[in-house]
Amino acid sequence: MSTRFPDSRPLIPNPPSAKRIPHQLECHGHVRIDEYYWLKNRDNPEVLAYLRAENEYAAALRSHTRDLEQKLFEEIKGRIQQTDLSVPFKLGDYWYYTRYEEGKEYALYCRKKDSLTSPEEIMLDGNVLARGHDYFSLGNWKISSGQDILAFAIDTQGRRIYSIGFKSLTTGEMVGEFIPSVTGNMEWGNDNRTLLYARQDPETLRSFRIFRHALGEDPRRDALVYEETDETFSVYVGKTKSKRYLVLGSHQTITSECWYLNADTPEGEFQLFQGRERGHEYDVDHLGEHFWIRTNDQAKNFRLMKAPLNSTHKHLWQEVISHRSDVFFEGFELFQNYLVVEERMQGLIHLRILPSQGGTEHELDFGEPAYMAALGDNCEADSPYLRFGYTSMTTPMTIYDYHMETREKILLKQEKVLGGFQITHYQTERLLAPALDGNSIPISLVYRKGFVRNGTHPLLLYGYGSYGASMDASFSSPRLSLLDRGFVYALAHIRGGEELGRQWYEDGKLLQKKNTFTDFIACAEFLAQQGYTAPQKLFAMGGSAGGLLMGAIMNMRPDLFHGVVAQVPFVDVVTTMLDPNIPLTTGEYDEWGDPNQRHFYDYMLSYSPYDNLEPQSYPHLLVTSGLHDSQVQFWEPTKWVAKLRALKTDNQRLLLRTNMEAGHSGASGRFKRYEETAMIYAFLLDLAGSIDN
After folding, report:
1. How much is the pLDDT for 610?
2. What residues are paired with 95 via a beta bridge?
3. pLDDT single digits (tens) 424-434
4. Helices marked H in 235-320 — which ranges?
5. Is residue 125 among the annotated active site residues?
6. Rounded to an integer, what distance in angstroms lies between the CA atom of residue 446 and that of residue 566?
7. Contact status, residue 423 vs residue 394, Cβ threshold 8 Å
8. Is the pLDDT at 529 greater than 80, yes or no?
9. Are 429 and 370 spatial neighbours (Cβ–Cβ below 8 Å)?
10. Average pLDDT, stretch 200-219?
11. What is the dihedral of CA 66, 69, 74, 75, to 10 degrees?
């Protein structure tokens, strides 16, 4: 396949590392030499100059696709219903919703009292709050129990460090106090005056303290409610469905602990619900005369228990839904007359309705081979309606109210896709690829009808495979720009996710992590063997921990993929996990392992993408990064690209694009975020030979 390049290539950026003494990293008597360690310094002018040089190089190398990028951006933007309204949900006396106005980047947060025909109250206008900021995110908002005070958290840098502000919904004026440097997690007490909130460690960004703030008081004197001293745990605060209890939770990868307090007396002392035991994960809700507990105690795939209000130790818990080896119990929703259970079977979500007073249980039927279903905003326990969302690779997100007694399903809204989109033009499939060890790896895929399995179509294979995060088959209107140009899009449900239950996750973490990579490779090989694509037309993409996946598969099978997109990739695994002073490290020892232990160090070193680069030919590669990323520090992709430039023996494209104003999630704004999407799609289409379409 011929690959198009600009007529004259710009000079490749050359980090001046030769002027510096290579950094020696020693652990367990093993020494690694890192010539690009100096790139960690965000405040170093040379580092910033190098990032700008990489951006300029990437822009120059993309100059011949600039028109295509703009065309794709306008195409993607043109599918969006610009004047739009979310489905309102009921909370107390009000209906709450967000809406967008024509041409504006950010949402307006609104409500109406009693009825949807009542006058609108605009609580916040994100476009006003975003003025003067290159980046803006409203991460969370909470209404006080009296529904007259709004607490909201905003981030204007992209590092997920928020500030809490308050607004009187009676007067429309901002309340004086302002709480800086917090996580954005918060919850009101029932006294209409007290807000509990979480604060992070300023270096590691670990959420480790819960404070209590009283309106009208100086936030600098807020009382410390709880401090988590175990550096592997993080804390949060929430409220039960009944709104009767505040719940303070502390959790890490495989262990959790909860405390509770009557929300009517938020100045009181929290009581321990059940002490932490390593390997025991549980979460708590309340309604009626019981606490309800989702727990993995003697239940790898979790089960549902209930406990009396006067004593919550687990020896008094009573089983409501038992453990099943073939069903993963994901969650539940409490109503006065119903219990709704969210379960995952054979990789797909099922919603089961159980009447509280006995009677016949039933399940919702979704009728497609691959889809995503999710519980929606169900704030009122006395409602007979279940709010849920449904989407598939061919079906835009659709919101329903389901009457649990009459079994009537009411369509509230389906995401409107402009530009002539028709569901009937697309086809979705569910496949099983054989893994090396005999397991079967599910693959969800979608293409435009008319596709023929003859190996001539370009295919983009996406994967993640970490943290037990399940990648469900959902709709994407931007993706249509690839499908309409002949691409197949496939999603590999590899180990490390939780699609097939907790064991699926455990078989893709710690000392089994390489299963994630070999599963992805097996899916790619299977798709080529079955004629969905061919290696010279096969592309891979993943972000964050999925970027680790991209780096690993490039090292293991560089011949299998024509091009790779790695978004904010976690690629310097060993160095990062040896540094307890940066975000996420200590809380993830049970995900990746603690390299201070030799067996974990050796295993990580055997797959860490940065450490396993070698002189060989690699696929075309596009890497994205964010200067203010708090989850994958910018220097990981930066170092990786610099080292790859020095080692690779090919003439394939290698582009690094760093967003100098954003963090892990990229650009903010409803439309601006799609500029990066358009850049990625143009990169793929160009390599696939589809630039003129």
Report:
1. 98
2. 90, 112
3. 999 999 999 99
4. none
5. no
6. 21
7. yes
8. yes
9. yes
10. 94
11. 140
Confidence at residue 586, expressed as pLDDT on a 0 to 100 scale: 79
Q: Which amino acid is located at 231 in the chain?
A: E
Neighbours of 427 (CB within 10 A): 15
Residue 16 has what pLDDT?
58
Q: What's the whole-number mean pLDDT along residues 54-74?
A: 95
Q: What is the DSSP string of 625-647?
A: EETT-SSS-THHHHHHHHHHHHH
What confidence tier does 668 reach under pLDDT thresholds 50, 70, 90? low
Whole-number pLDDT of residue 142: 97
269 or 15, which is more confident?
269
What digits encode the pLDDT tens for the residues 600-636? 999 999 999 999 999 999 999 999 999 987 778 899 9
Give residue 6's pLDDT.
37
The answer to whether residues 528 and 517 touch, using CB atoms and an 8 Å cutoff, is: no
145 is an active site residue? no
Residue listed under structure tokens 């974990």: 600
- Active-site residue (options: 213, 620, 628, 664): 664
Residue 386 parent element (H or E): strand 385-392
| Side chain identity, residue 359 | G
pLDDT at 664: 59
- Domains of the chain, each with CATH number or no CATH: 16-77+424-687 (3.40.50.1820)
- What does the alpha-carbon distance between residue 382 and residue 385 come to, in Å, rounded to a whole number? 9
CA angle (523, 528, 529) in 5-degree steps: 95
Catalytic residue among 17, 144, 544, 608: 544
Tell me whether residue 611 is one of the annotated catalytic residues: no
CA-to-CA dists, residue 450 to 475, 485, 489, 619, angstroms: 19, 12, 15, 29
Of 222, 611, 629, 686, the catalytic one is: 629
At 168, phi and psi to the nearest 5? -80, 120
Q: Is 455 in a helix, a strand, or coil?
A: coil
User: b/e string for 553-564 if b means 16 or more Cβ within 10 A?
Assistant: bbbbbbebbbbb
Q: Which two tokens stand for residue 576?
A: 């990062």
Other CB atoms within 10 Å distance of the CB of residue 469: 16
pLDDT averaged over the chain? 93
Distance (Å, whole) CA 206 – CA 512? 26
Provide the angle, in degrees to the nearest 10, between the axes of the packed helices 545-556 and 514-529. 70
